[in-house]
């Protein structure tokens, strides 16, 4: 693949990964000009680079979306649900085209005239509220792959921080504010370097081998206190430890990278179900290994969808229960020892433990008397068994009893644990505990005896012919020594 195209795909995937959450945030905070400018810069960058690479279809969609965003910035139109829907549809189309580009190095065939026309009608400020935003011509799973970072994961690992990731817009800026932001991004970009994920993995493997060799040398020196190599090996130990920590840091990424698509997931599901749901994310800067980050994306998405689909109630139900019409899902992460703890909580209906008991009996998982005797905490753990669901009806999101089973299996694969707690009428909390990294684990080794096998158990000196009697009544003696 051409280097320019590869760089464009990688950069676009990084920028688009946060675009969904930014657009959803704009719907909630329409007066946030900084957020609107960030969205505009991302689309403007994609459009400018498309023109340079000759990607006409992508350029047309990006240009139409850019016009709408520019009208929002100049207050010619206002942020409405319909405008957000159409802009999100344009983003989905861009993602799908990018995914096809990554696979074939060419734009797919398709007609985006309906989508572009819909974006054009938004400029009048009076779009048809009954007109659904058109979908992209390419299947949505492709767009989802890019939203998950498939392109970024397969071609490079970004070492940019959140500010540096917003690279300068290609082509002339729309106004002076964009120019100034572009200059700032250029200076930040000059201090960063992209390296391939394969190279990082190779470095990790080599450093791991170096650490094993270091450990072997330390053991050899420990068995010979008079060794002239003791000081050099200790220095090697310190340097190897520092090198190992430095290489491991290159693999660490903020967990927020796995959260970028979740606001869009919650928003779309809430709109589809007629619910009002806010997603509160805390601890997005908590870092963990890239490999772990990739492994938890799907389980996190499923648990969030579960909370939104049959955790948070409909507004009328919440109002009747004395709650606010809008529900809240709280997603938090924090370091705890050598692990990361992730909690997904909602203030919804909670889980009816007795319903779970009945379902378990109906499914033949437990006999009736055994189910009655089972403590509530263990009953809740049955949620993670295949085929058991508390949903009243099957939807395209949940209800078949396979999702939480897959969540547990995926968490188990990376050495993590998952726990569930719930109070009926008040909400549910899922607590996931996962290791920081799978690359290298530290361990402490200790001999069953306090004495090295080639040393005297009494005096600790090396056993050899002619050594003076230790005379301490120990079971293992220096060579040729009689009992004291």
Q: What can you see in these coordinates?
A:
Helix 1 (3-28) crosses helix 11 (262-273) and helix 9 (197-222) runs antiparallel to helix 10 (230-251). The strands form two sheets. A five-stranded mixed sheet has the order 2-4-5-7-6. Strands 1-3 form a two-stranded antiparallel ribbon. It has helices at 3-28, 33-53, 56-73, 81-104, 113-122, 140-147, 150-155, 176-189, 197-222, 230-251, 262-273, 290-310, 315-320, 353-362, 368-373, 376-381, 403-413, and strands at 252-254, 277-282, 287-289, 327-336, 339-346, 417-423, 427-435. Mean pLDDT is 77; it is low at 131-190, 450-460 and 462-484. With 484 residues, the chain is α+β, with helices and mostly antiparallel strands. The protein has 17 helices and seven strands. The longest helix is centred in the first third of the chain and has 26 residues, at 3-28. 51% of the residues lie in helices and 10% in strands. A hairpin with a 3-residue loop joins strand 6 (417-423) and strand 7 (427-435). The protein folds into four domains: 3-189, HPT domain (Four Helix Bundle (Hemerythrin (Met), subunit A)); 197-252, Helix Hairpins (Orthogonal Bundle); 254-435, Histidine kinase-like ATPase, C-terminal domain (Heat Shock Protein 90); 447-484, no CATH class.
